[in-house]
# Entry
Amino acid sequence: MALIETPYLLFLGDAPDALAAKVAQGVKDWRPDYAIGQYRMDGCKADMGLQDLDIQAAVEAGCKTLVIGVANRGGVISAAWKTVLIEALNAGLDIASGLHNLLRDEPDLVAAAKANGRQLHDVRIPSVKYPIANGVKRSGKRCLAVGTDCSVGKMYTALCLEKEMLERGMKASFRATGQTGILITGDGVPLDAVIADFMAGSIEYLTPDNDADHWDLIEGQGSLFHVSYSGVTMALVHGGQPDALILCHEPTRDHMRGLPGYKLPSLQALRDIALQLAQVGNPDCQVVGISVNTKGLAEDDAKSYLSGLEAELGLPTTDPFRFGAGPLVDALAKI
Amino acid sequence: MALIETPYLLFLGDAPDALAAKVAQGVKDWRPDYAIGQYRMDGCKADMGLQDLDIQAAVEAGCKTLVIGVANRGGVISAAWKTVLIEALNAGLDIASGLHNLLRDEPDLVAAAKANGRQLHDVRIPSVKYPIANGVKRSGKRCLAVGTDCSVGKMYTALCLEKEMLERGMKASFRATGQTGILITGDGVPLDAVIADFMAGSIEYLTPDNDADHWDLIEGQGSLFHVSYSGVTMALVHGGQPDALILCHEPTRDHMRGLPGYKLPSLQALRDIALQLAQVGNPDCQVVGISVNTKGLAEDDAKSYLSGLEAELGLPTTDPFRFGAGPLVDALAKI
# Structure
């Protein structure tokens, strides 16, 4: 059972543009069955192309949770939002949010939730007391996306792999480790908010024993080469116990995200160090392919870049969102 | 200014044996100036060889803080302890504790502290809102102890280096990253309790810009090869921005601490991967020596083991606690 009850009413609020509603877009793209309708306030500039439902209509359509699919302006949950959120709680919906401002810190929302017996899900912070990792080998297979940098497409890579595997009739589960992924799928570990000692254990908890032919597709975080967040990445490499690593890259970037003095590593350097570290937890781990976010390249340039990389590193290489995850799933299916 | 006011009255409580009082032993060994006296209850089996002081005598001797230097039995702060602790607060002492049970969770201690305007220092958990690491190069020099495993002597190595450097008139500061180290020195970061996203930033905070010839001697945690805690270690390697790494090892261990299925890595493997990772944050980082905890070996065996390792890896090798930190400080002084 997912942590967050589905299906969802996607709350777009007064989104100033489409980009502000990227959580809602993620749900709609990756869990269309969860996305029954959208709620847009006056002045909303985002549109998921879903039916516009008011709260009562959403309840009648079977929605269980209002998901805040939009970033809030100025870091404040506004009075205008609250009117809608309280109406939703009164009508019997839970609320799920990945905002930095927590729902639970708003007394009026807490009171309305309590009065109606509803849940407020703040996925920004953990709701579980995770164990310390024990390193014991688990059944089933696991694939982890590791990146040359933060925000190079690791979440989309894992979601693309899940989609392709399910379409082929394989057993697969995307395992969310960040707030957007958790809201998309209704469950996961907000790894960046876990206490240091329990990071690897939280990933063991997230990816337990499973069928021998089941794949956990673990959302990566940070990068082993990103000095601000590399510890988080390391916990995924060891807690995830991956059988397979997919290297993720974004080719147009000048420097590491947020670190002007730091160049991106080569894919070879990432491959070598990530594999060596992963083999501490799983000696059979392999690097199986490369996923490139080619959004910044024209289609011809993207294709020649991918084929160049494939020849250079001798690994299946694709932009799974743009050109399909087939080559990567082919490689995983052989493990 | 240290987080915790010194000097200390070391509270040994009803310690069942000397081992239970290892925090007190650490203070006495490494900060003898802080250790003015000890407080022993009936049945106490530990003895630091300090003068026994009651609370009033401790205050008159200039003590500022009662440091709980002993583990509590059964995870409970007993009524017998509380009588002493409340007397200490009433007499004007602060209390510092690294216990898992927090002082702040005991209403009677909180009330007595408040009534007397005293501090309760729970060093188990952070008292600072740490920044996210920015990776900017800092002035001064930093040495980090990295281990083949947990609990191989990284804290003692850093403390030995500090002592030797200070004796030579060098500028040096031990930087505590664990509860025992924090209680010994009165300040530091309880890294295992920091939120994932802020781990590396907490180490940047702990080891700020300093004189060009000043050494921060950073206490290591965990191991890059320990799957439960490697993320914590990684944050030290990147947040610490070390100029020098000291490899730490304990030669009598069968398997990684708490992980029966896991063998210890070779020192060569640790050297290679730790250096490669550290050079992401500081391209000039070097591995300068090896520190071995030879407690489990007879003196002759220890010496031949050390000289064998030194020949094998070509690095200055010693047990700094047993045979002195000289060779390691010689190597650091050349950087």
Chain A has a mean pLDDT of 96. Chain A touches chain B through 42 residues (CB under 8 Å). The radius of gyration of chain A is 20 Å.
